Amino acid sequence: MDDSLDKHVFLAEAREAVSTHIAFSRFVRGTESLCGSGNPFLSGEDISRFDKLWFELEIVNAGALSDWEDQGKPANWINEWEATYKPDAVELIENLVVLLQNK
Question: pTM of the predicted model, to two decimals?
Fold first, then answer.
């Protein structure tokens, strides 16, 4: 994610990220650069909240990718994603969106 990132574009990408485990993984990886002082949208205590949310996103991402890889990286893994990981991913993304929308 670069410094010229538009918050509205970022929020749209966040909402789209839960569509598949691959989209979520890409989003989480790209969002890491916004942790800490690299966050152009937030300051102070809100950066800490963002960082905590990102860490939780990374935990969900790691679990999903581990299970997907353990199952041989099947091309169609949508049922497993939706049943096991997507509910947590949606909740975390919603929290992230709320945090950023209010700033």
Answer: 0.91
